[in-house]
Inverse folding.
């Protein structure tokens, strides 16, 4: 997730009417007329707010015959809601990590790399995340990379660039849009879950 998307989310939901709409949709799908009636607002006003919520994918719609029903996209709500604390607190930020944890992470990196090359992709989630964090450290924040540039960057560590590129996306280390890759803010990356 990119920082600008997180900002757009908070700007959009920073409205009392939109929060009320989301609360109503959390109880189940509703059509625009029903929302207008419950909230005592005009249908065009409801349509305006729903359009804003759909722009950030927080609300989806489905047609049933001649009626459009609006649904809350709970997974998007959870994803954005959890991203802000990570951004502010920075759970996986090395600046907030204690020394023993830094040493443990360094040891894992040393075990999986030889002469800068990744020997094998770790199967254990925690170790894989530490390795991915290490590999992504050389990417520049705010720079947009083509797929070829990302592949070339990854092959300096491991020949299976497709798998690692996919792991960067799945772990939210990078964001891909129209075959362009961009590093997400580090605070938004999937956490390294300590055992």
């Amino acid at each position: 997730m990119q920082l600008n998307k997180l900002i757009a989310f908070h700007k959009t939901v920073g409205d009392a009417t939109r929060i009320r709409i989301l609360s109503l949709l959390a109880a189940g799908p509703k059509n625009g007329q029903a929302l207008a009636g419950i909230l005592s607002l005009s249908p065009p006003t409801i349509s305006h707010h729903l359009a804003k919520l759909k722009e950030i994918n927080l609300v989806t719609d489905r047609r049933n015959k001649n009626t459009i029903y609006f649904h809350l996209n709970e997974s998007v709500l959870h994803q954005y809601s959890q991203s802000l604390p990570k951004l502010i607190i920075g759970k996986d930020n090395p600046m907030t990590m204690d020394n023993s944890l830094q040493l443990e992470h360094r040891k894992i990196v040393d075990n999986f790399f030889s002469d800068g090359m990744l020997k094998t992709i770790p199967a254990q989630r925690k170790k894989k995340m530490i390795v991915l964090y290490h590999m992504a450290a050389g990417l520049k924040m705010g720079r947009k990379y083509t797929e070829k540039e990302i592949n070339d960057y990854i092959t300096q560590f491991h020949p299976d660039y497709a798998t690692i590129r996919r792991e960067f996306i799945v772990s939210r280390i990078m964001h891909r849009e129209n075959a362009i890759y961009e590093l997400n803010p580090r605070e938004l990356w999937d956490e390294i879950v300590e055992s």
Q: What stands out?
A: Confidence is low (pLDDT under 50) at residues 91-95. The beta strands are 30-31, 59-64, 67-72, 113-114, 117-118, 144-146, 174-177, 180-183. Residues 75 and 99 are 35 Å apart (CA to CA).
